[in-house]
Design goal:
This protein is an alpha+beta fold. The chain contains twelve helices and 14 strands.
Protein backbone atom coordinates (compact mmCIF):
# COMPACT_ATOMS: atom_id res chain seq x y z
CA UNK A 1 0.00 0.00 0.00
CA UNK A 2 1.46 3.36 -1.06
CA UNK A 3 2.03 6.11 1.41
CA UNK A 4 -0.03 9.34 1.27
CA UNK A 5 3.02 11.31 0.07
CA UNK A 6 3.72 8.96 -2.86
CA UNK A 7 0.07 9.01 -3.90
CA UNK A 8 0.18 12.81 -3.91
CA UNK A 9 3.32 12.77 -6.11
CA UNK A 10 1.62 10.43 -8.59
CA UNK A 11 -1.42 12.70 -8.74
CA UNK A 12 0.76 15.71 -9.45
CA UNK A 13 2.61 13.84 -12.20
CA UNK A 14 -0.69 12.89 -13.84
CA UNK A 15 -1.92 16.49 -13.66
CA UNK A 16 1.27 17.71 -15.33
CA UNK A 17 1.13 15.15 -18.15
CA UNK A 18 -0.31 16.64 -21.34
CA UNK A 19 -3.74 15.42 -22.41
CA UNK A 20 -3.86 13.41 -25.66
CA UNK A 21 -5.52 16.34 -27.46
CA UNK A 22 -2.80 18.71 -26.29
CA UNK A 23 -0.12 16.27 -27.46
CA UNK A 24 -1.74 16.00 -30.87
CA UNK A 25 -1.99 19.79 -31.08
CA UNK A 26 1.67 20.23 -30.18
CA UNK A 27 2.70 17.65 -32.76
CA UNK A 28 0.50 19.27 -35.40
CA UNK A 29 1.97 22.69 -34.74
CA UNK A 30 5.48 21.23 -34.90
CA UNK A 31 4.71 19.57 -38.24
CA UNK A 32 3.28 22.80 -39.68
CA UNK A 33 6.31 24.74 -38.46
CA UNK A 34 8.63 22.37 -40.34
CA UNK A 35 6.45 22.15 -43.46
CA UNK A 36 6.08 25.94 -43.84
CA UNK A 37 9.66 26.70 -44.95
CA UNK A 38 9.51 23.63 -47.20
CA UNK A 39 6.35 25.04 -48.78
CA UNK A 40 8.05 28.42 -49.30
CA UNK A 41 10.94 26.74 -51.10
CA UNK A 42 8.44 24.88 -53.28
CA UNK A 43 6.59 28.15 -54.04
CA UNK A 44 9.86 29.86 -54.98
CA UNK A 45 10.83 26.93 -57.22
CA UNK A 46 7.46 27.01 -58.99
CA UNK A 47 7.68 30.73 -59.64
CA UNK A 48 11.32 30.61 -60.71
CA UNK A 49 11.31 27.45 -62.86
CA UNK A 50 7.70 27.33 -64.10
CA UNK A 51 6.68 30.96 -63.88
CA UNK A 52 5.12 32.32 -67.06
CA UNK A 53 4.74 28.85 -68.60
CA UNK A 54 1.61 28.23 -66.46
CA UNK A 55 -1.07 30.89 -66.16
CA UNK A 56 -1.41 30.58 -62.36
CA UNK A 57 2.28 30.96 -61.51
CA UNK A 58 2.57 33.49 -64.33
CA UNK A 59 0.06 35.70 -62.54
CA UNK A 60 1.36 35.00 -59.04
CA UNK A 61 4.76 36.53 -59.78
CA UNK A 62 3.00 39.90 -60.14
CA UNK A 63 1.32 39.71 -56.73
CA UNK A 64 2.87 41.00 -53.47
CA UNK A 65 5.25 38.28 -52.32
CA UNK A 66 4.71 39.34 -48.72
CA UNK A 67 1.42 37.43 -48.94
CA UNK A 68 3.44 34.22 -48.57
CA UNK A 69 4.39 35.47 -45.11
CA UNK A 70 0.87 35.50 -43.68
CA UNK A 71 1.30 32.15 -41.82
CA UNK A 72 4.57 33.29 -40.21
CA UNK A 73 3.29 35.28 -37.17
CA UNK A 74 0.52 32.71 -36.62
CA UNK A 75 2.99 29.82 -36.48
CA UNK A 76 5.33 31.74 -34.18
CA UNK A 77 2.41 32.32 -31.78
CA UNK A 78 1.28 28.70 -31.97
CA UNK A 79 4.78 27.44 -31.21
CA UNK A 80 4.84 29.52 -28.03
CA UNK A 81 1.37 28.36 -27.01
CA UNK A 82 2.32 24.73 -27.69
CA UNK A 83 5.50 25.19 -25.63
CA UNK A 84 7.76 24.30 -28.54
CA UNK A 85 10.16 27.27 -28.59
CA UNK A 86 12.98 24.98 -29.72
CA UNK A 87 11.30 24.96 -33.16
CA UNK A 88 11.31 28.71 -33.62
CA UNK A 89 14.41 28.27 -35.80
CA UNK A 90 12.11 26.87 -38.50
CA UNK A 91 10.33 30.21 -38.69
CA UNK A 92 13.64 32.06 -38.82
CA UNK A 93 14.49 29.93 -41.86
CA UNK A 94 11.05 30.62 -43.34
CA UNK A 95 11.54 34.37 -42.84
CA UNK A 96 14.90 34.22 -44.63
CA UNK A 97 13.38 32.34 -47.58
CA UNK A 98 10.51 34.83 -47.72
CA UNK A 99 12.61 37.99 -47.48
CA UNK A 100 15.61 37.01 -49.60
CA UNK A 101 14.16 34.38 -51.95
CA UNK A 102 10.61 35.48 -52.69
CA UNK A 103 10.70 39.21 -51.87
CA UNK A 104 14.19 39.73 -53.29
CA UNK A 105 15.90 41.66 -50.50
CA UNK A 106 19.49 42.60 -51.33
CA UNK A 107 22.07 43.18 -48.61
CA UNK A 108 24.36 46.21 -48.93
CA UNK A 109 27.82 45.37 -50.23
CA UNK A 110 30.70 47.74 -49.42
CA UNK A 111 32.14 49.36 -52.55
CA UNK A 112 35.82 49.85 -51.77
CA UNK A 113 37.82 52.45 -53.65
CA UNK A 114 36.81 55.16 -56.10
CA UNK A 115 36.54 54.33 -59.81
CA UNK A 116 39.88 54.76 -61.55
CA UNK A 117 38.30 55.79 -64.87
CA UNK A 118 35.32 57.76 -66.15
CA UNK A 119 31.81 57.10 -64.86
CA UNK A 120 28.64 57.22 -66.97
CA UNK A 121 25.28 57.79 -65.32
CA UNK A 122 22.20 56.14 -66.86
CA UNK A 123 18.61 56.89 -65.84
CA UNK A 124 15.70 54.65 -66.85
CA UNK A 125 12.14 55.84 -66.35
CA UNK A 126 8.72 54.57 -67.42
CA UNK A 127 6.97 57.94 -67.61
CA UNK A 128 3.38 56.60 -67.77
CA UNK A 129 2.58 58.65 -70.90
CA UNK A 130 3.51 61.81 -68.93
CA UNK A 131 0.08 61.85 -67.29
CA UNK A 132 1.57 63.73 -64.33
CA UNK A 133 3.03 66.39 -66.64
CA UNK A 134 6.22 66.83 -68.63
CA UNK A 135 7.62 69.28 -66.07
CA UNK A 136 7.55 66.63 -63.33
CA UNK A 137 9.29 64.14 -65.61
CA UNK A 138 12.01 66.68 -66.38
CA UNK A 139 12.37 67.52 -62.68
CA UNK A 140 13.26 63.88 -62.05
CA UNK A 141 15.84 63.99 -64.85
CA UNK A 142 17.30 67.24 -63.52
CA UNK A 143 17.49 65.77 -60.03
CA UNK A 144 19.90 63.04 -61.13
CA UNK A 145 21.45 64.73 -64.21
CA UNK A 146 22.12 61.48 -66.09
CA UNK A 147 24.49 61.33 -69.04
CA UNK A 148 22.01 58.99 -70.74
CA UNK A 149 18.27 59.30 -70.09
CA UNK A 150 16.16 56.32 -71.15
CA UNK A 151 12.41 57.01 -71.18
CA UNK A 152 9.71 54.50 -72.11
CA UNK A 153 5.94 54.65 -72.57
CA UNK A 154 5.62 57.93 -74.41
CA UNK A 155 2.20 58.85 -75.72
CA UNK A 156 2.73 62.29 -77.27
CA UNK A 157 6.45 62.84 -77.86
CA UNK A 158 6.27 66.57 -78.66
CA UNK A 159 6.60 67.97 -75.14
CA UNK A 160 9.13 65.35 -74.11
CA UNK A 161 11.27 65.85 -77.22
CA UNK A 162 11.54 69.62 -76.87
CA UNK A 163 12.29 69.37 -73.14
CA UNK A 164 15.00 66.75 -73.72
CA UNK A 165 16.60 68.91 -76.42
CA UNK A 166 17.00 71.68 -73.85
CA UNK A 167 19.13 69.29 -71.79
CA UNK A 168 20.87 66.99 -74.28
CA UNK A 169 22.74 67.47 -77.53
CA UNK A 170 21.41 64.19 -78.91
CA UNK A 171 17.76 63.17 -78.68
CA UNK A 172 16.18 60.19 -80.46
CA UNK A 173 12.44 59.37 -80.41
CA UNK A 174 11.23 56.02 -81.76
CA UNK A 175 7.59 55.21 -81.02
CA UNK A 176 7.14 54.94 -77.26
CA UNK A 177 10.90 55.26 -76.63
CA UNK A 178 12.87 58.47 -76.01
CA UNK A 179 16.61 58.77 -75.58
CA UNK A 180 18.50 61.84 -74.44
CA UNK A 181 22.29 61.77 -74.16
CA UNK A 182 25.33 64.02 -74.00
CA UNK A 183 27.22 61.56 -76.20
CA UNK A 184 27.09 60.98 -79.97
CA UNK A 185 24.49 58.42 -81.11
CA UNK A 186 26.21 56.43 -83.86
CA UNK A 187 23.14 54.49 -84.94
CA UNK A 188 19.60 53.59 -83.97
CA UNK A 189 17.83 50.41 -85.04
CA UNK A 190 14.10 49.84 -84.80
CA UNK A 191 13.84 46.03 -85.21
CA UNK A 192 11.42 44.17 -87.44
CA UNK A 193 8.03 43.24 -86.07
CA UNK A 194 7.48 39.80 -84.54
CA UNK A 195 5.14 37.23 -86.09
CA UNK A 196 2.84 35.96 -83.34
CA UNK A 197 -0.43 34.02 -83.59
CA UNK A 198 -0.92 34.96 -87.24
CA UNK A 199 -0.19 38.66 -86.67
CA UNK A 200 2.92 40.81 -86.59
CA UNK A 201 3.53 42.52 -83.25
CA UNK A 202 5.90 45.17 -82.01
CA UNK A 203 9.07 43.73 -80.44
CA UNK A 204 8.93 46.70 -78.03
CA UNK A 205 12.61 47.52 -77.94
CA UNK A 206 15.07 49.79 -79.75
CA UNK A 207 18.85 49.45 -80.04
CA UNK A 208 21.22 52.44 -80.04
CA UNK A 209 24.98 52.49 -80.47
CA UNK A 210 26.46 55.35 -78.43
CA UNK A 211 30.00 56.70 -78.20
CA UNK A 212 30.67 57.11 -74.47
CA UNK A 213 33.79 57.78 -72.37
CA UNK A 214 33.68 54.03 -71.66
CA UNK A 215 33.84 53.21 -75.37
CA UNK A 216 31.10 52.37 -77.83
CA UNK A 217 28.08 50.82 -76.14
CA UNK A 218 25.04 48.96 -77.50
CA UNK A 219 22.13 50.32 -75.49
CA UNK A 220 18.82 48.45 -75.61
CA UNK A 221 15.71 50.39 -74.57
CA UNK A 222 13.08 47.80 -73.62
CA UNK A 223 9.45 47.68 -72.60
CA UNK A 224 7.87 44.26 -73.24
CA UNK A 225 4.12 43.80 -72.97
CA UNK A 226 2.53 44.67 -69.63
CA UNK A 227 0.62 41.95 -67.70
CA UNK A 228 -2.06 44.41 -66.55
CA UNK A 229 -4.72 42.88 -68.76
CA UNK A 230 -4.05 39.38 -67.44
CA UNK A 231 -5.74 39.77 -64.05
CA UNK A 232 -8.74 41.38 -65.73
CA UNK A 233 -9.05 38.33 -67.95
CA UNK A 234 -9.01 36.01 -64.92
CA UNK A 235 -11.62 38.08 -63.06
CA UNK A 236 -14.11 37.38 -65.81
CA UNK A 237 -17.36 39.26 -66.22
CA UNK A 238 -18.66 38.34 -62.77
CA UNK A 239 -15.53 39.26 -60.81
CA UNK A 240 -12.73 37.34 -59.11
CA UNK A 241 -14.86 36.43 -56.05
CA UNK A 242 -17.43 34.65 -58.20
CA UNK A 243 -14.69 32.85 -60.12
CA UNK A 244 -13.36 31.48 -56.80
CA UNK A 245 -16.78 30.51 -55.41
CA UNK A 246 -17.81 28.80 -58.62
CA UNK A 247 -14.61 26.76 -58.78
CA UNK A 248 -13.80 28.13 -62.22
CA UNK A 249 -10.62 29.77 -60.95
CA UNK A 250 -8.69 26.53 -61.51
CA UNK A 251 -9.75 26.56 -65.18
CA UNK A 252 -10.91 30.13 -65.87
CA UNK A 253 -12.07 31.25 -69.27
CA UNK A 254 -9.38 33.94 -69.25
CA UNK A 255 -6.49 31.51 -68.69
CA UNK A 256 -5.88 31.14 -72.42
CA UNK A 257 -5.71 34.90 -72.83
CA UNK A 258 -3.20 35.11 -70.00
CA UNK A 259 -1.01 32.52 -71.71
CA UNK A 260 -1.24 34.35 -75.04
CA UNK A 261 -0.19 37.65 -73.45
CA UNK A 262 2.56 35.94 -71.47
CA UNK A 263 3.78 34.21 -74.63
CA UNK A 264 4.03 37.51 -76.48
CA UNK A 265 5.91 39.11 -73.59
CA UNK A 266 8.28 36.12 -73.59
CA UNK A 267 8.83 36.41 -77.35
CA UNK A 268 9.67 40.10 -77.00
CA UNK A 269 12.18 39.42 -74.22
CA UNK A 270 13.73 36.57 -76.20
CA UNK A 271 14.07 38.86 -79.22
CA UNK A 272 16.08 41.61 -77.53
CA UNK A 273 17.99 39.06 -75.43
CA UNK A 274 19.11 37.25 -78.60
CA UNK A 275 20.12 40.53 -80.25
CA UNK A 276 22.06 41.61 -77.16
CA UNK A 277 23.82 38.22 -76.95
CA UNK A 278 24.93 38.56 -80.59
CA UNK A 279 26.41 42.02 -79.99
CA UNK A 280 30.17 42.44 -80.22
CA UNK A 281 29.97 45.72 -78.29
CA UNK A 282 29.45 45.97 -74.53
CA UNK A 283 25.74 45.93 -73.74
CA UNK A 284 23.45 47.95 -71.47
CA UNK A 285 19.78 47.00 -71.21
CA UNK A 286 17.51 49.61 -69.63
CA UNK A 287 13.78 50.08 -69.29
CA UNK A 288 10.65 48.55 -67.86
CA UNK A 289 11.18 44.81 -68.25
CA UNK A 290 7.77 43.87 -66.79
CA UNK A 291 9.58 40.90 -65.21
CA UNK A 292 9.57 40.71 -61.39
CA UNK A 293 12.39 39.04 -59.49
CA UNK A 294 10.99 35.44 -59.40
CA UNK A 295 10.28 35.46 -63.16
CA UNK A 296 11.24 32.36 -65.15
CA UNK A 297 11.52 34.44 -68.32
CA UNK A 298 13.99 36.80 -66.67
CA UNK A 299 16.10 33.94 -65.35
CA UNK A 300 16.12 32.10 -68.67
CA UNK A 301 16.98 35.12 -70.85
CA UNK A 302 18.58 37.91 -68.83
CA UNK A 303 20.36 36.35 -65.86
CA UNK A 304 23.66 36.40 -67.81
CA UNK A 305 23.75 40.19 -67.35
CA UNK A 306 24.70 42.06 -64.23
CA UNK A 307 21.67 43.50 -62.47
CA UNK A 308 22.59 47.02 -61.38
CA UNK A 309 20.45 46.94 -58.27
CA UNK A 310 21.90 43.63 -57.08
CA UNK A 311 25.43 44.83 -57.80
CA UNK A 312 25.30 48.28 -56.21
CA UNK A 313 21.94 48.76 -54.49
CA UNK A 314 20.36 47.36 -51.36
CA UNK A 315 16.93 46.73 -49.91
CA UNK A 316 13.97 45.58 -51.98
CA UNK A 317 14.33 48.16 -54.75
CA UNK A 318 10.67 47.95 -55.72
CA UNK A 319 9.67 50.27 -58.57
CA UNK A 320 5.99 49.51 -59.22
CA UNK A 321 3.21 50.36 -58.45
CA UNK A 322 4.38 53.75 -57.25
CA UNK A 323 1.46 54.35 -54.89
CA UNK A 324 1.42 53.92 -51.11
CA UNK A 325 3.80 51.01 -51.35
CA UNK A 326 5.36 49.19 -54.28
CA UNK A 327 5.86 45.43 -54.42
CA UNK A 328 7.60 44.67 -57.74
CA UNK A 329 11.06 45.41 -59.09
CA UNK A 330 10.49 45.50 -62.83
CA UNK A 331 12.35 48.65 -63.89
CA UNK A 332 15.97 47.66 -64.39
CA UNK A 333 19.38 48.58 -65.72
CA UNK A 334 21.40 45.54 -66.76
CA UNK A 335 24.91 45.41 -68.18
CA UNK A 336 27.43 42.98 -69.61
CA UNK A 337 30.61 42.09 -67.75
CA UNK A 338 32.53 44.86 -69.51
CA UNK A 339 31.08 47.25 -66.91
CA UNK A 340 31.12 47.65 -63.15
CA UNK A 341 28.21 49.23 -61.29
CA UNK A 342 29.48 51.90 -58.92
CA UNK A 343 26.14 53.11 -57.57
CA UNK A 344 22.45 52.38 -57.99
CA UNK A 345 19.53 54.55 -56.91
CA UNK A 346 15.77 53.96 -56.93
CA UNK A 347 13.93 57.27 -57.25
CA UNK A 348 11.01 58.34 -55.08
CA UNK A 349 9.27 60.84 -57.36
CA UNK A 350 5.53 60.51 -58.01
CA UNK A 351 5.83 61.84 -61.54
CA UNK A 352 4.77 58.38 -62.77
CA UNK A 353 3.23 55.14 -61.57
CA UNK A 354 6.78 53.76 -61.84
CA UNK A 355 9.86 54.85 -59.93
CA UNK A 356 12.94 55.82 -61.88
CA UNK A 357 16.19 53.89 -61.54
CA UNK A 358 19.67 55.41 -61.85
CA UNK A 359 23.00 53.62 -62.27
CA UNK A 360 26.58 54.86 -62.31
CA UNK A 361 28.79 52.60 -64.43
CA UNK A 362 32.48 52.41 -65.10
CA UNK A 363 34.70 49.95 -66.93
CA UNK A 364 35.38 46.72 -65.06
CA UNK A 365 38.95 46.12 -63.96
CA UNK A 366 40.85 43.81 -66.39
Amino acid sequence: MSSPSSALDEARAVSRAPAPAARWLAQGVASLAILYPVALVAAWALLRFVGERWWLTGLTIYLPMIGFGLPLPLLVGLLWLARRPELLWTQAVAAAILVFGLMGFVLPVPRLGAPSGPVVRVLSFNIDSAHAGVDRIMAEIDRYAPDIAVLVELADPRGIESSLKERYTNVVIVGQFALGTRYPVVSTRDPDRLPYYGRVRSPRYVEHVIDTPLGRVALFQVHPLSPREDLGAIRGRQGLKQEILSGRLLHPAGAERVQVNSGLRTAQVQAFSAEASAETLPVIIAGDTNLPSPSYVFGANLSRYQDGFRQAGWGFGYTFPNVRWAWMRIDRILASDHFRFVRFIVGDSHASDHRSVVADLTTAAP
